[in-house]
Design goal:
This protein is an alpha/beta fold. The protein has two domains: 99 residues, Rhodanese-like domain (Oxidized Rhodanese, domain 1); 75 residues. The chain has eight helices and five strands. It has a five-stranded parallel beta sheet. Strand 2, helix 2 and strand 3 form a beta-alpha-beta unit. Helix 6 packs antiparallel against helix 8. The longest helix is centred in the C-terminal third of the chain and has 35 residues.
Length: 196
């Protein structure tokens, strides 16, 4: 059986939590009437695209920040769809803050056709690249371990289950890197062809 957490707003709390649409957020950002926009998604989600000007704080970091943020200023919250930001907003309201939750979240922002900020595309290659260096080259001998396994595969000498496991463990990061590089290449060529 699934259980949902239900929030009960005590007297006065409803005055400190309001819900707005993304159009109101856009207007507020353009007129500088949004003092602080916090994106409560994970750092990986945030780096994949966020509303320009948003700050990424989630979980304990948000609560720590809220303790030092003035309670007379509004805190605007956003997430992917508006659910996580609403839950976070209710926590901040319980702490005495005035919160504005953006209904529809970043999904609605993108659906409206407004731009999002992303981390530079090359940073997407860092994690697969590090995995290749640690798993794909380890243990490092005069030549990478995965090369020896590939040669064994090419000569049909790879029948030992441990060798097959080794090849998968040491080869998977290289496939991940190749796949990520291909996706990055396609993304960059699409952007280039769209800008010309």
């Amino acid at each position: 059986m699934l259980f949902r957490r239900t929030w009960v707003m005590t007297s006065g709390m409803e005055d400190r939590l309001r819900v707005v649409q993304v159009s109101e957020l856009k207007q507020g950002l353009e007129t500088s009437s949004v003092p602080l926009l916090i994106d409560v998604r994970t750092p990986m989600e945030f780096s994949g695209g966020h509303v320009p000007g948003a700050v990424n704080l989630a979980g304990p970091g948000l609560v720590e920040f809220a303790e030092s943020f003035p309670k007379d200023r509004e805190v605007w919250l956003i997430c992917r769809s508006g659910r996580r930001s609403l839950a976070s907003g209710k926590q901040l309201v319980e702490m005495g803050h005035h919160v504005v939750n953006v209904d529809g979240g970043t999904q609605a922002w993108r659906a409206a056709g407004w731009p999002v900020q992303e981390k530079p595309s090359l940073t997407r290659l860092v994690l697969p690249g590090l995995a290749c260096m640690t798993l794909g080259l380890a243990p490092f001998r005069p030549r990478p371990h995965v090369v020896e396994k590939l040669e064994m595969l090419g000569q049909f000498r790879l029948w030992n289950p441990i060798d097959i496991f080794d090849l998968v463990m040491h080869g998977a990061p290289w496939l991940w890197l190749a796949w990520t590089a291909w996706k990055l290449f396609r993304l960059l060529t699409q952007k280039r062809s769209g800008s010309t």
